[in-house]
Amino acid sequence: RSGPRALRQAVTAARYLGRVVPHLRSELRHGSLLHVQGLFGIWLTEITVRGVRGTPVVFTPHNLFARTGGRRAYRSIARSIRAADVAVGFSVADADEIARIGGRGVVAPFVFTHPEPDESASSRWRSTFGEGAHVGMLGQIRSDKRPDVFVEACALVGIRPIIVGKDLGGLAAAQDAATRLGTGLTLVEGFLPLQDFVDVLSSLDVVVSPQTTASTSGPLALARDLGVATVANDVGGLGEVATVTTSEQTPEALASAI
After folding, report:
1. Does the pLDDT at position 51 exceed 80?
2. Which H/E stretch holds residue 137?
3. Is 87 helix (H, G, I), strand (E, B) or coil?
């Protein structure tokens, strides 16, 4: 657990191939059904979906795009979708893409189970964020989510951007944009327990998702349930959950939508 990441991944993959896959093959009986969820190592997922014979396989990839691995990884996802008896998407856009790939797709409504907001906690967050409109971007802070474009859009509207989440490589660009444009940046960094996440989100006026590729979005779905307005680029299934979408992936278009 404490060794280099590449070594840990190799050991985990070896154990999975040596133990889990043979176990599945030996234990699945007639009448069984195997449900594979997520992309837990894209090629391991493919081996699991394609390696079980004689048992119906339901595959829920969660995302229909690969954040790493490029075209090779996407082709692996596509092969897994075609090999499964049914592939589950969380949006009509996903189901259409599954059909385009050659799979049998069904749509499962994206239900976000969550506690109710604590109004006193949400009020404290509003006080922390200060006067004016509270517009935030929530979730993992990745470069493909374009937090820097979010900051630029907020600058055009004349509001201070709020970013909430764990940094996975996108924060520096957002901070650089905030410094360059003089907007300032309110940052709640790190992974929040679900209740805290709900309280923060419910304190906002608008939740923004400017990412360039997506299947669906947990923060947008949660915001919809809580009655908070949302803005998103019209990619993947985001248009099915967002209040307002923009087809132009620019700070100006995002600012207008906000």
Report:
1. no
2. strand 135-138
3. strand
Is the CB of residue 34 less than 8 Å from the CB of residue 58?
yes
Residue 197, pLDDT > 60, answer yes
Q: Which amino acid is at 144?
A: D
pLDDT tens across 139-178, in order?
Answer: 999 998 999 999 999 999 999 999 999 999 999 999 999 9
List all residues 6 or more positions away from 184 whose beta carbon is below 8 Å from its beta carbon.
160, 161, 178
Phi-psi region of 98 (alpha: psi -120 to 50; beta: other; left: phi over 0): alpha
CA distance 76 to 57: 16
The Cα–Cα gap between 180 and 183 comes to 8
CA distances from residue 214 to 22, 55, 89, 168 in whole angstroms, order as listed: 33, 30, 12, 16
DSSP state at residue 114 = -
Enclosing H/E stretch for 72: helix 70-83
Q: State the first-to-last Cα distance of the chain, in angstroms, to the nearest integer.
A: 44
Residue entry with tokens 């100006």: 252
Query: What's the rounded Cα separation, in Å, for the pair 21 and 240?
Result: 36
**Two tokens, residue 250:** 């620019």
For 31, 115, 121, 166, 222, the CA distances from 105, given in Å and listed in that order, are 21, 31, 41, 32, 24
Count of residues in the chain: 258
Segment 242-255 mean pLDDT: 94
The whole-angstrom separation of Cα 250 and Cα 36 is 37
